[in-house]
Amino acid sequence: MKSNSHIPVLLNEAISGLNIKSDGIYVDMTLGRAGHSSEILKKLDSKGCLIAFDQDLEAVAYSKERLSEIGQNFVIVNDNFKNIEKILDQMNISRVDGVLFDLGVSSPQFDEDYRGFSYRYDAPLDMRMSQENPLTAREVVNTYSLEKLTKIFKEYGEDKYSYNIAKNICKRRSEKPIETTFELIDIIKASKPIRELEKVGHPAKQIFQALRIEVNDELNVLKEALEGSIKRLNVNGRIVVITFQSLEDKITKNIFRKYSVIEGNRINDYIDPKDIKTPDYKEINRKVITPSEDELKVNRRSKSAKLRILEKIK
Question: Could you tell me if 54 and 76 are in contact, meaning their C-beta atoms sit under 8 angstroms apart?
């Protein structure tokens, strides 16, 4: 089942957070179905430019057509967003005025049963953002050691039954390879007590998250992309990051703090005020921005979203 229906999360808050200049250069690191990109492009004049990244060729094809109806001053890059600095160098662009990250898996990817992202459909274990990626969820499930599976499920999925699930995966795959999402879900359910299965939420959610992160190396990619983006900001340029799980939010929070806080300034009382170092960046919102009640009613997938903004001030 294919779908291009996607409701962009925290749309107004993200666009407002970018503080868009009509002649600026903006990068949407997660194009998807162009929900955020469309609104950015609408605010740019002929001197402005939108650069958008996506690894998914279906998303690229759909979004190119959608954006073309708004304007022509955009470039879509079919690449991993960790390569932002390399791509900007190739385009002879040294600085940009804003960068947006929307780190949720797009609704069409969840809704396309053949992609293997969703526990709602029986599909081959895939979970690749890019079909060029040689590593699939099937390979992880069927070849990783008990210790490595447990570590991934515990660290990336924060599932307290990680060891039981990993142990039962190893037992099942010794009989025959685990091929589909539903086969994996059956193992996950069999690894948890009844009281856990009766809780609200799907029992496989955390394990599917862990596999997706591992397959796409999402956390390391995020760190690299954030660092590269921050270095490329113009003065008064901003980075807006929307996360959907605690690991991504923690990485974003720590990197933003690294650039916006200089440790030790308040320790030495003998420093002359003129010698106190001040940071080159500031956090616009120290408290994360979350979806409104109205947005939650329209889009339940926005429930876990958190938005942070960093600005280059000098």
Answer: yes
With a CB cutoff of 8 Å and minimum separation 6, the contacts of 114 are 123, 124, 126
pLDDT at 7: 82
3 state DSSP class of 49: strand
**CA–CA gap between residue 230 and residue 311 (Å, rounded):** 9
- Are 16 and 67 a contacting pair, CB within 8 Å? no
Asked if 53 and 28 touch (Cβ cutoff 8 Å), the reply is yes
Confidence at residue 106, expressed as pLDDT on a 0 to 100 scale: 63
Q: The CATH number of 11-108+219-312 is which of 1.10.4160.10, 3.40.50.150, 3.40.50.11030, 3.10.20.740?
A: 3.40.50.150
Number of other CB atoms surrounding residue 33 within 10 Å: 24
Distance CA 44, CA 305 (A): 26
State the pLDDT at residue 288.
96
Calpha distance 59→50 (Å, rounded)? 16
Give the integer Cα–Cα distance in Å for 36 and 241.
12
User: CB of 130 within 8 A of CB of 56?
Assistant: yes
Instruction: List, as one string, the DSSP characters of 131-191.
Output: TT-S--HHHHHHHS-HHHHHHHHHHHS--TTHHHHHHHHHHHHTTS---BHHHHHHHHHHT
pTM: 0.89
Evaluate whether 41 touches 74 at the Cβ level (below 8 Å). yes
Mean pLDDT, the chain cut into blocks of 10 residues (314 residues total) = 67 97 98 95 98 92 97 97 97 98 71 68 90 94 98 96 98 97 97 95 94 95 97 98 95 97 65 75 95 92 94 97
Joined tokens for residue 216: 């796409």
pLDDT of residue 114: 57
Strand-pair partners of 118: none
Q: Which residue has the tokens 């916006």?
A: 260
Assigned CATH class of 118-216? mainly alpha
* Amino acid type, 237: G
Give the pair of three-digit tokens for residue 153. Answer: 């499920």
